[in-house]
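Hi V.,

You were right to ask for the full record rather than a summary. Here it is.
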Amino acid sequence: MIHAARRVFVLGGLAALTGVLPGCALVSNAPLKDTRHPGPLRDPAAPIASQVDVTLDRLRGEWRVLSSAGALAPKRRFQVRALSDGGAVFVQDGRADLPATDLGQGRFGVLKQQYWVHWMDADATVALVGVLNAPAVWIMTRAAPPADRVNAAWEVFDWYGYNREWMRAPE
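Predicted structure:
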């Protein structure tokens, strides 16, 4: 019970520090499974949200993946590049440019998937991203971030019911 209260306090503090409250949404109750991993990637009974102030502009640039899970998740690098028409593409591990549409509230359409930025620090140096209704999630950074920000991303990861047993460091 104390641990749960601590999580609420930490998340409330993060919202206060960043000046935003995450947007909430209901998602499928079916657990996201992969036969190569023990249990589902995410507990469907846990809350899930995206951070409303995350835009393509805030995501733009190079990111290094700290840890990831799932076939759709990048393993080493994630990049957001601007296009001349105002759009953007996501590039995962240097492979194909994936057209990205800003759906608002920290959510992005990529092909037939929705990428949700669950949490990003105020300086846009650490982010937790998940693919809605697909077994994929990752934590990424721009440089060597302070440990407290990486720890905050892991706290949000836990709060949203993700399973740490799935996560792998870059190879």
